[in-house]
Amino acid sequence: MKQALLLFFGLTMFNLSAQGILGKWKTIDDETGEEKSIVNIYEVDGKVYGNIIEILNPKKKNSRCTKCEGNNKDKPIVGMQIIDGLTKNDDVYEGGTILNPSNGKVYKCRLKLEDDSNKLQVRGYVAFFYKTQYWKRVN
């Protein structure tokens, strides 16, 4: 019985750590604490990307990125790729960008899984100025 429990807990812990940053995350506004959207983070050819798959405020579900430039100008926010081209470097993902649909700006991005693996540190920055949010894993 003891061995079975140890095996179960060992596999569960391995599964959580192996899960990494991939999957669905609830975005939390760092200033207001408001839950804003669900982002699906996925990997293609060794690079990490993220798309908004749901907006949580019913009044904003059909929002468009009016402040975006280029290809995203006036496009629906649901379905929009906001995380682009990050690669793993030790325990962080970096080297890519993140788009803030609220202001249309693109920032360098760094993602880091917190110790409990259900919280993701999301940092967008320009030069040495940065802003950090903590997103919650969606089960």
TrEMBL record:
One Pfam family recorded for the sequence: DUF2147
Keywords on record: Signal
Residues covered by the DUF2147 domain: 23-137
Signal peptide: 1-18
Protein name per its UniProtKB record: Uncharacterized protein DUF2147
Organism of derivation: Winogradskyella wandonensis
Phylogenetic lineage: Bacteria, Pseudomonadati, Bacteroidota, Flavobacteriia, Flavobacteriales
